[in-house]
Amino acid sequence: MFEAVLTEGKTFKHIIEAIKDLVGDCNLDCSEEEISIQSMDSAHVSLVAVRLGSEAFSTYRCDRPNSLGISTSNMDKILKMLGDKDSITFKAEDDKPDILTMLFESENDNGAIADFDLKLMDIERDQLGIPDTPYKCTIQMPSSEFQRIARDLQVLGDTCTISCGKEGVRFSVSGAIGNGNILIRANTAEKDEESVVINMNEPVELNFALRYLNFFTKATKLSNTVVISMSPDVPIVVEYPIQDYGHTKFYLAPKIEED
Amino acid sequence: MFEAVLTEGKTFKHIIEAIKDLVGDCNLDCSEEEISIQSMDSAHVSLVAVRLGSEAFSTYRCDRPNSLGISTSNMDKILKMLGDKDSITFKAEDDKPDILTMLFESENDNGAIADFDLKLMDIERDQLGIPDTPYKCTIQMPSSEFQRIARDLQVLGDTCTISCGKEGVRFSVSGAIGNGNILIRANTAEKDEESVVINMNEPVELNFALRYLNFFTKATKLSNTVVISMSPDVPIVVEYPIQDYGHTKFYLAPKIEED
Amino acid sequence: MFEAVLTEGKTFKHIIEAIKDLVGDCNLDCSEEEISIQSMDSAHVSLVAVRLGSEAFSTYRCDRPNSLGISTSNMDKILKMLGDKDSITFKAEDDKPDILTMLFESENDNGAIADFDLKLMDIERDQLGIPDTPYKCTIQMPSSEFQRIARDLQVLGDTCTISCGKEGVRFSVSGAIGNGNILIRANTAEKDEESVVINMNEPVELNFALRYLNFFTKATKLSNTVVISMSPDVPIVVEYPIQDYGHTKFYLAPKIEED
Q1: Spatial separation of the C-alpha atoms in residues A216 and A239, rounded to whole Å
Q2: 3-state class of A105 per DSSP?
Q3: What is the pLDDT of residues B52-93, one digit of tens each?
Q4: What are the tens digits of pLDDT across the range A63-101?
Q5: Å between B102 CA and nearest CA of chain C
Q6: What ipTM does this complex have?
Q7: Which DSSP category does A24 fall into?
Q8: How many of the other CB atoms lie within 10 Å of CB of C57?
Q9: What residues of chain B lie within 8 A of the CB of C181, using their CB?
Q10: What is its main location (chains A, B, C) (predicted)?
């Protein structure tokens, strides 16, 4: 038996919206401590890792670890019906192993109640160890700003060079019509979430496929800030923290430039 | 000679928007009492009935009953040019039997004046008697809520079961990805138009093509409330009242389930 | 060396948006007095003339007349990245003749700085003499109203008759579904930009391709008012003034009706 109530249901909606274009079918892993998702994208280029701690839920009961195989696009279709202020109650019963029941209720007593049975699938798991290494550079910036940069630079080319140095963080793209650079400098805004905080132990410069950075920014609704971590020769981490009880992280290996 | 001035011209605009996807060509029937439209949809599955009483108009003169055959899509193109606060003056002169003239004027004296001559057609009429029977269940609910339900449930399947019982009204759909139910309960909101009022003599459960329910909800702009009437084995009526001087009604026969 | 700073960068963005659908590649002609563009559209039917006087810029330095050949669609792609309150610094250096550098800076010191190098092309110039003749009729009206009329009347046909007479200015279109007239009368609104001012020496009636009038209205964002000038048998001028330091003008020859 698994049962959990997420008062702010739209958090889960935004998670599925954030990953559905990258990840088709995946396991929703439920344990005593958390719900998590870990999956390579369908092209096996990037990795998605989602975590919602049990403290995110007003009710949480998970008798035994359980993997619920979902189609993210079907889940997304059902979540489209979630009202902005609705809670979600998740229920997976032991005697119905191929069904995940979701109840959408508005806080308003007189509102509509909706319940959905989503068919589950068996999905082979390829659990991946993600080393928790320290990074040479960490950049915290407004998520909407990162989204804008990734979207804008697409018109110039396919590959974005991200270089973190003394001046700040520079996003550069070069292509047929010309080239462009956008420089973000550390700064302290009145609101923490509008600040840019750069922690740099040593300068790092890496190249990434803009297409994937743009996939990641589908998570912008999840968080006002994004945290970008880089070290030479290892995958970049683009993290959208979900308040203090979870996150959606994307990992992407740098492109190796041939000279 | 037919001449009528509709101060709130956008009411007529919304009527045409509501029916144009269902009904291609139809007669605008003008009599001393009212303007009305009655037509099957092009697939002959549902029936549309519109009525605007003469009291809806600030000026109304109809010397003799007259049928003006219009293309709803051409009419819609012209009405796209109507300003939000414009009045419409309709004029059909006896010596120009194939022209309907419409004048759009804003209340503002300095505004633009637009006049249009729409070409009319001869349309064979198949006047249909609609029996005015009492219904076992009548549900009044916010039209936007009904629109949301019909739209949302589409992703799950093609057929919607509407069952009116003690608990309330349940909209259910079942399909390949799972199934869903949305329950609406009677409730009294501060504003009448936000209330849900259910009159039930006996429980009724019928199946309908969601595609058509979604066609009907194009009338949502016409009215804050929708009134749904059901009896076993007879067509459902989905009515959008137009203040106290008219309505747009849609009739749709239930689907017969084969076991 | 050419260097110029446009504090309100979006003015230039709006100019390029206004002409890019008409003009593919064109020269940005820089002189001591102004930046200007003059080009026929790709079908050689209409003419575009843009002028931004040096007084439009907070810094302006042009050592020698210079023609910068740009692709308007590439320029537009880069300008999409301009923030609403960003300034643009243009730089063309003599030793890099095939590059136009643009710097986008927000007034906010902490904001992002973006710089772009746009590749330039050699474009053959066909400088056209535009006679500065007096016109029989001049109409000043809100640009948004002109945009609405040109857009709305498209559904009725391809050719718009514009006739300026005692009553006002009449825009007429006739086609398969019927015909329509929109009449604009002179009037004095509280705000100058909402007024309609008609100067008529003698009545003029000319026919124009609506398709082109609709191209011209892409300049609506540039100015609250549009000034339309007409004389018999000569091209109409549709001018969008840019404050008091420039303009975007479109010229279009009237259609000759065959009887």
Answers
A1: 9
A2: strand
A3: 999 999 999 999 999 999 999 999 999 999 999 999 999 999
A4: 999 999 999 999 999 999 999 999 999 999 999 999 999
A5: 9
A6: 0.88
A7: S
A8: 21
A9: 114-116
A10: nucleus
